[in-house]
Every structure is written in C-alpha cells, then in structure tokens.
Amino acid sequence: MSWILLLSLTAVTFFNRYVFLEPKTSIWLPDFALRMLKYAAPCLMVSIALPIIFFEQGEWKGMLNNSYFYGAIFAVWVTAITRKLLLSIALSLLFFYVLIYFF
Fold this sequence. Notes:
Strand content: under 5%
Strand order of the largest sheet: 1-2
Mean pLDDT: 83
Order of helices and strands: HHHEEHH
Structural class: mainly alpha
Number of helices: 5
Shape: elongated
C-alpha cells in the first residue's frame, strides 16, 4: 500500500469525522447517522489492516509463523484491557518489534 493512498484515506476519514461529529459545526445529522459515523474509523482500519496482516504479494501468509497476526491479536487484547489509546499503541508497537526481531 502506498503512502499517498494511506494518507489520503486518513485525510478522508478525519474530514468526515470532524465535519459531522464536531459539536461546533452547523451541520446536524440524525442520531442513527451519527452512530454510524462513529464506526467509520474502525471499519476503515480493518479494511486496510487485513490485507497487510494476512497477505504478502497477493499470497496467503498463513497464521502460525505470521508475526503480523500475533501483533494484531496483541493489539486488540491490550486495547480491550487498557482502554487507553496511546498506551495501547506504544505497547503494541513494542510487542510487534520484539516479535519481528525474534521471528
């Protein structure tokens, strides 16, 4: 995945969430639309992360020797336990780089 595509997806997601979820903007949406927008970033991250985790150059990586898979599982687990974004990111990156070093 190229950096331009990744940054453009980030910009689109931020713009959509900021314009519609910021209380200071004059745009008002129904409650069901606001609830759906709160799931936009996680859904986008899943659609970006799954091909990176499970595929390499269009071929299935497998799961037993896949450090990306174990890193993703750890990230989900630590996020569910701590509920703190920066701590989860730091611990997940540390775990992933230690895992890459030993795999």
